[in-house]
Amino acid sequence: MGLPTRRAVLLGLATGPAAALVACSATGPGPDPSPDASTDADNAIRVRTAASETDLVRLYDATIAAHPSLAARLAPLRTQHAEHLVFIGPYTEPTPQSRDASASGVPSSSPSVAPSSSPSDVPSSGAVPPTPAAALRALVQAERSAAATRVDDCVAASNGDLADMLARIGGSEAQHAAALAAGAS
């Protein structure tokens, strides 16, 4: 078994992001990719996912600091995002030289391992809305955005194990959005 079929993903998207994530994970792990462009693409997905999860942790930290009354509710979700960083697995952050080389089509030299500081699909943690309800709505939007990006990354992943991990993280983010939306009104 390998990656989901286009039909399975499209059917999943038609019924919602959670169904698309199920389609990604239902196909099971595929063979490990050969060390080529697909490996570089999968690494880029891991880097992007790590940046997104780091940004979500920071957003939860900023929201908890701004609205301590939400701490008990938000702390478990923040912890899950920190755990996602462990599940992402090893990746290599492209160095400025390797980014230039990849743009020119020349393979890069050994990149260093480091957390990503590149922009991601999660809004900046610098501006927490002034009321708890508005802050919860902002978290819902951040979680929905992250879950949608995990669907796209799941479909793009060439490695079945990576697609499965992305589906699990995306499912968690979709669940967080639903749980937070219930109290954001």
Provide keyphrases for this structure:
185 residues, mainly alpha, 7 helices, 68% helix, 0% strand, elongated
Can you describe this structure?
This protein is mostly helical and 185 residues long. The protein has 7 helices and no strands. The protein has helices at 6-15, 17-26, 37-66, 71-88, 96-104, 132-156, 160-182. The longest helix has 30 residues, at 37-66. The chain is elongated and about 45 Å long.
Topology, pairings included?
Elements: H1 6-15, H2 17-26, H3 37-66, H4 71-88, H5 96-104, H6 132-156, H7 160-182
Helix pairs in contact: 1-2, 2-6, 2-7, 3-4, 3-6, 4-7, 6-7
Order of helices and strands: HHHHHHH
Number of distinct helices? 7
Which ranges are low-confidence, i.e. pLDDT below 50, for 5 or more consecutive residues? 1-15, 25-34, 97-121
Largest sheet: none
Q: End-to-end distance, in Å?
A: 43 Å
What is the overall shape?
A: elongated
* Mean pLDDT level: 74
Estimated structural class? mainly alpha
The radius of gyration over CA amounts to: 17 Å
> Residue share in helices?
55-70%
* Number of beta strands: 0
Strand proportion: under 5%
Could you write a compact summary of the structure shown?
With 185 residues, this protein is mainly α. The N terminus is likely disordered.
